[in-house]
# Entry
Amino acid sequence: MIKRKLNKIAKDTNLFLKRFISKQKKSNLMVAMKYGLFSGGKKIRSKILIDVGSLFNLDYKTLIIIGASVECIHSYSLIHDDLPCMDDDSIRRGKPSAHIKFGEATAVLAGNSLLTMAFEILSHKDLRINEKTKMDLINKISESSGHLGIAGGQYLDLNYERKKISKKKIEEMEIKKTGKLFSFCCAAPLIIKKKNKSDIKKFENIGADIGLLFQVADDLIDYKGSLLVAGKKTGKDKKKGKATLISLLGYKNTIKYANILLKKINNKLKRYEPKSKSLSETLNYILNRNK
Ligand code: GRG
# Structure
């Protein structure tokens, strides 16, 4: 059921992105950009955005467009994450990483172009929401991607390698690196609905918890998963001396931690039942997936 929903979202998102790109002038970077965007990917961030959007009766097509901008930033972060100066990974989604296929310089530039494409999509006239709301969305997604978000989290991730790091600091790093984009996905529907600041903050925090859950599940896959299923090399965190909750608490305690976190998120969503059923289903998938 969830797989079918994810496939539909992936299909609709990719269709939007293909049309969006096809309306632009051709460039030498397009092939590498398309490789980053269309070489697979679960589109889980778009799914969360659509699940939260459905709590507030938002239009599916609007959410697909906003999700497409998120997927551009996500694809950018994966291309850069695989670079030799970052995590130095040669396989992504079961295929050669972008820098292996196109060379480092092209991968860096294609990544940068995907980041800016996210802003082109959000500021485009085809996204039919008012200008002030577009500004608010662009402001929030920029904040989530920069030094206080994904980039800052990635810095901490690299900086913490082979060091003893506290639980609080690991959580903070994972929330920045992975959680901030989920925070954006959870906050965007409330921004569109012009909800008050405290409600937006509440959903940003739910997003941070979902992102943390997602990252912990990713770490569990790295620990126990296989290349063939995960589509990327596993067992890397240990080799690189990454600071993860598994390295600190052990595998079994991390599974307990993840289940407690899942319960905490579901408790926060109780007041939105039964509309939150699809979101809860996505959360279960996040924890129990194998890729
Ligand atoms: C500022 C956007 C930006 C990037 C530069 C390289 C970098 C800084 C950040 C890396 C952030 C990163 C890759 C975090 C890991 C998040 C994660 C678990 C990614 C895997 O996501 P999935 O499983 O991927 O959703 P698919 O393949 O399904 O799309």
Strands lie at 91-92, 95-96. Residues 40-42, 44, 73-74, 76-78, 80-81, 86, 93, 145, 150-151, 154, 177-178, 215, 218 surround geranylgeranyl diphosphate (CB under 6 Å).
